[in-house]
């Protein structure tokens, strides 16, 4: 029995979404391991007890949360075949993603200005942990920006419509995951 094109596309979409879920779960497990190591390390005698995250990290958190809303609005717009609104929301998401990265590096600069270093002889285990976790998250965010650029490229090539939204859906899933992951990390570092 031959499978219809619609059935093939549905199975293909489910397979791609399942693969993305597995990838996101494995990424989350990496960060769960890093934050667990952070918790264990807090009992070290050289652990900084008075370290406070700069406000730039709070600003970057607000930016990334807002970018999830704009990506969601892009997905909603393409479902209505509103190409102009989709373009606007995707480009705004890209600008916010870049703004998030800029705010992160600004935050790193503020940490260094406060006399805390991430590597070298003047570093502490506390700042080194912060550096590792944030850099690993930024690496994933750069992957997210590449995904977003690919979605934008495909959108301008008119590969998406109300009947073909898989690429935007997958991109949005990954972007929302990165957002949730950062909020988890921010709250962890802020309150722990």
Structural class comes to: mainly alpha
- Looking at the structure, what is the overall shape? elongated
Which CATH-level-2 architecture? Answer: Up-down Bundle
The biggest sheet, with number of strands, parallel, antiparallel or mixed sense and barrel status, is: none
The total count of strands amounts to 0
Under CATH, the homologous superfamily reads Cytochrome c oxidase, subunit III, four-helix bundle
What is the CATH top level name? Mainly Alpha
Distance between the termini: 58 Å
Domains (count): 1
The ordered H/E elements are HHHHH
**What value does the Rg take, in angstroms?**
20 Å
Provide a count of the helices.
5
Task: Please state the average pLDDT score.
Answer: 90
> What are the low-pLDDT stretches, counting only 5+ consecutive residues below 50?
none
Helix content: over 70%
What is the subunit organization of this protein?
single chain
What are its keywords?
single chain, 192 residues, mainly alpha, Four Helix Bundle (Hemerythrin (Met), subunit A), 5 helices, 0% strand, elongated
Write a structural description:
With 192 residues, the chain is an all-alpha fold. It has helices at 5-41, 55-79, 83-113, 125-156, 166-191. Helix 1 runs parallel beside helix 5 (166-191) and helix 3 packs antiparallel against helix 4.
Secondary-structure blueprint:
Elements: H1 5-41, H2 55-79, H3 83-113, H4 125-156, H5 166-191
Helix pairs in contact: 1-4, 1-5, 2-3, 2-5, 3-4, 4-5
